[in-house]
Amino acid sequence: MKSFIEKYQPKKSEDIPQDLSLLKSIIKGKKCAMVYGQTGTCKTSSTYTIANELNLETIEVNASDFRTKEQINTIIGKASQQQSLFMKEKILIIDEVDCLSGREDRGGATAIAAVIKTTKFPIILTANDPFSDKIKEIKKIVPLIEFPPIRTKEITKILKEICDKEKVEYDLDTLSKISINSSGDLRAAINDLQSNIINNRLVSQNQQREYEIGINHILNQIFKQKTIEAYKALENTNIDLNEYSLWLDQNLPIEYQESKDLFNAYELFSKADIFKGRITRWQYWRFMYYQSLLLTSGISLAKKQINKKFSPYKRSSRPLRIWQINMKTIKRKTITEKLAKNTHCSTREITKNFDNYLNILNNKVIQEELQLNQEEIEWIKKQLF
After folding, report:
1. What is the pTM of this model?
2. How many whole angstroms separate alpha carbon 268 and alpha carbon 262?
């Protein structure tokens, strides 16, 4: 099933609930800028939409993919100077520039700043945290454009349009609650909408909220006590142990702020994971008792002192990250399968040497032979340029 995020990507500026006038002016003037704001505020999609309206070729890279200034100069530097294959004007998007990661990316921000100074094409950078010290060199030379959290009213309107197009039965009260809970994150709201549709009907979020209240209560018992009795927190609940583990993993760094406490907790967490692996391999479910004990009483006793501050517990973002990674690799996978089928090679062999095939795959005759669709062809171009 296609995700609503992918299916309902904005096609024109009017579809985006942000003021795009300044961003559009900068792109038209072949200048550079940094768009910042929390996740789900249409930073990247706005740039794509404007590029589409101006008939610009888009080249997107993620800052976290680069580890050295040499890589930045090789990929971004060349792309900022070279004309596209089809002699079209283009735009470069550097996503999540604030994710340049410390020591490994030393010199990365300086290298990007140098590219910006000499680029022949507009470059738009996106960031969640524009005040990070990692990107201060970039901030000195580009204007900052803030994309604020999207208003609840706008999110509800977009969710309603999606429901109407999908012929989903819904009520405005439930849509409003999804919008409010998203805290201005349109992407999260659309994902929540899709996950709450059952048999073409939008179900109430009451059960979901009750579940989160339950898991918050359990985490509070584990984190705010230091007792062997903490294992009782999971008794008489229907909460899945694997789901509980994801919540625990997400919130441990928030709750255990002493490095020694966090080390002890994750050591016990890793031992619990060993038992989980043994259960899977040997189907010996008795080990679940030890897994549960380590994740409750073990974690509770791992700390030296109880953190008495209030901690707002958050749902794990790992499933979403896995989905995002899968979405990034799915085109590579489908192209690999088509190439393997036509060359009578194994997908493993094609995957191993995939980069060697990229130039060949850019040939129009080969693309027609493999029956590549337009999205796959565009993906190949992005890998080359």
Report:
1. 0.54
2. 10
